[in-house]
Structures are given as structure tokens and as C-alpha cells.
Amino acid sequence: QQQQRTQGEKNKEKTDQMQSQNGDVAENSSNDGSYHYRMFNFFNRKFKIREPEPPLDVKMAFMHFSQDGLHMKPSEFRRFMVEHQGETGCTLSRAEEIVNNIISSRHHITRFTRNGLNLDDFFHFLLFDDDINGPIKLEVHNDMTAPLSNYFIYTGHNSYLTGNQLSSDCSEVPIAKALQRGVRVIELDIWPNSTREDINVLHGRTLTTPVSLINCLKSIRDNAFVSSPYPVIITLEDHLTPDLQAKAAEMITQIFGKMLYFPESNKLAEFPSPESLKQRIIISTKPPKEYLEKDHVSASTKLRDASFDDASTNSSDLEGYDSDQDLDDFEISDPKSGSGLRVAPEYKHLITIHAGKPKGTLKDGLKVAADK
């Protein structure tokens, strides 16, 4: 027993020594031999989604119409709608209905204990809630006969993704839903499939699962003008070879038919108006170059092969090229063509809006150029 106690004391001394070295402070809190350890080396990580903060005018309106400055009751909300928004037909029962709908949609657990809107609820109602706070007038009340470049356009981004940009599925369903909500610009990232004989839509160099281009085009055709007759712009982020560009052009012309708009001449003196482009589909992408410098052809071929080959690709194949260089900065050359001729003529002819990064200031980027 004496030997066992001695060994136990030795083990305890070793434990105390190790904990002291690791930055632990041991405190004997009782007589039963138990110890409590207070850690002083640790990390505290906080993850929080940053939401847009209500602007000053929204804060001032909320403070003006809410009696306590913290919550806006239905009667106060009605006064805001009548006096500030000019909706004189808003009754107290209608105000109560709106407030209850906002609370139910934003506060699922505590909705039964709330009887008014907080500032964030009020801000969300004004700017983000199309279902509850839709447009006052459904009919178009703006002049729609100016060139298309004069208007703000409801634009989608990665319109084919069902979830996050790294590992979600790609599908034509989100495209249909976006168009049904009134989105007028659909973005498609187009890549060769695994056999390089057909075209997929996916978020490149990620784990997203692809969807075929033809399914996406059919979804656009079937839903383009469900919510609005005004034109739909398809923005293509093109990673195709000339052969596949020609195939894409064939798909686009066959699926959209007379819905597809493209100018008869290469340049437009002035872009058509939304009114004249009703029920039309427009293609936008970065114009492909017809010829490449020899070194760019070589670089793009190596980068393309590295991006599509399997994991056995040797990193030395890219020696001499900047690994941080985006593939979009290179044209993708056709390995079957030794001449460097790059463009499928049918594909180039369909490009109505020449996409690209604007140069200079925002004011410069918004200028209307006759050759663009």
C-alpha cells in the first residue's frame, strides 16, 4: 500500500508538472484530492453574417413614427404608411396584418410574444420584402424607349447554382426561379465536359456538379417572359474551344429561334430600347480573339490541360507560368488547330453585348460607346 501511494504521488507530480508547462494553473479546491484547472491560453472564434445596416433616413423615419424608438406598433406603422408613404387607404387591420406577416417570417420562435417591429424588421420590409411590400403599381410607368444601356437591369450571378459556390449542384431549376422573380440577366459559366465533346455549365475549378448547357438554355426559353416581356440577357463566361463554340452557337440558334436578337452589322450606332427588344434573348460575352500570339497559345494550352487532366498532372508542366494567373486572362486554344485561328464565326456573330472589365472610373465605364 505504501508503494502504491508513493507511485500515485509520483504520477500526480508528473501530471501537475505537465499541466504547468502547458499553461494550466492548478488550484486545489477541496480536500478530496480533486483539482480544477483554469485555462488561460485559448482562442475564441466568432462567426457572424454581416447584414447591411439601415441608412440614416430609415432610422430617422423609424424613430419619428415609433413612440419608444425601439418598437413600431401596428397603429404607428399605419401612421407611417399614411403620412409618410402616402397610402391613405391603409387601415389599422391592414397594418396589423402586415406587421404580423413580417414578424412571422423573421421571428419564428418569438413571434407570439412580439407586438411590433424593431428597426431591422422595418428596414427589411422597406428594402427586401417583395412579397409583403411589392410595387405600388404593377404596370410600367417609366419611359422604356431609350437605349438599353440607359437602364438599371435586375441581374443574376451564377444563376445555375442550387447552393454554395464550392460544392453545390448545378441545375436549370434556379434559372427558372430567377426568371420567374423578374431577373433579366442570367449568367452561365460554360466548360467542356469530361470527354470535351459537349458543353456543361458549372462553377469552374470547384466541386460543383455540372448541368448540361442545353438544359439551361431550354429553361431560359420556357421561363424568360413569365414575369416580364422585356429582354433577357444571357451572360456567358466562355471556356470553350472553337469547335465547342460552334456547337454552342448551334444550340442557341435552334433553341431560341426568332427570340434571339443579334445585329445584322458588326457595330451598332445606338443600342435598341427595352421596348423594341420585348420577347427577345440577347447574348453577352467577352469577344474571342481571332488570332493568338504564339506564346499565348502555348501558355493557354498548358493551363487548359492542367485544369482538365486528372490528379496525376505534373506541376512541372506549368513551369515558367504564373500559377496565380487566372485562366480567364488566356484564350483557350484548339489543340487540333495548328494555325491559331480561334473563332467559330457563327458564335462570334451571336454576341450582341461585348462583355469585359471596365477601364477607368465608374463614370467612364457607364459611357455609351458606339463600337461596343
TrEMBL record:
Give the CC-aspect GO terms: plasma membrane
The protein depicted here goes by the name Phosphoinositide phospholipase C
Could you tell me which Gene3D superfamilies the record lists for this protein?
A: EF-hand, Phosphatidylinositol (PI) phosphodiesterase
Q: Where in the cell is it found?
A: Cell membrane
Biased composition (Polar residues) is annotated at 17-30
Q: Mind telling me which SUPFAM superfamilies this protein's record contains?
A: EF-hand, PLC-like phosphodiesterases
Keywords from the named record: Hydrolase, Lipid degradation, Lipid metabolism
Give the Phosphatidylinositol-specific phospholipase C X domain ranges. Answer: 142-286
EC number(s)? 3.1.4.11
Where this protein primarily resides, as one coarse class? membrane
The answer on whether this UniProt entry bears the keyword Lipid metabolism reads: yes
InterPro entries tied to this protein: EF-hand-dom_pair, PI-PLC_fam, PLC-like_Pdiesterase_TIM-brl, PLipase_C_PInositol-sp_X_dom
Q: Which organism is it from?
A: Citrus sinensis
What are the GO MF terms of this UniProt record? phosphatidylinositol-4,5-bisphosphate phospholipase C activity
Entry keyword Lipid metabolism: yes
Pfam assignment, any one: PI-PLC-X
Q: Which GO terms describe its biological process?
A: intracellular signal transduction; lipid catabolic process
Q: Where is the composition biased (Basic and acidic residues)?
A: 7-16
Compositional bias, Acidic residues, is annotated for 319-332
The record lists the catalysed reaction(s) as: a 1,2-diacyl-sn-glycero-3-phospho-(1D-myo-inositol-4,5-bisphosphate) + H2O = 1D-myo-inositol 1,4,5-trisphosphate + a 1,2-diacyl-sn-glycerol + H(+)
Topological type in the membrane: Peripheral membrane protein
Instruction: Specify where the region named Disordered lies, as residue ranges.
Output: 1-30, 308-341
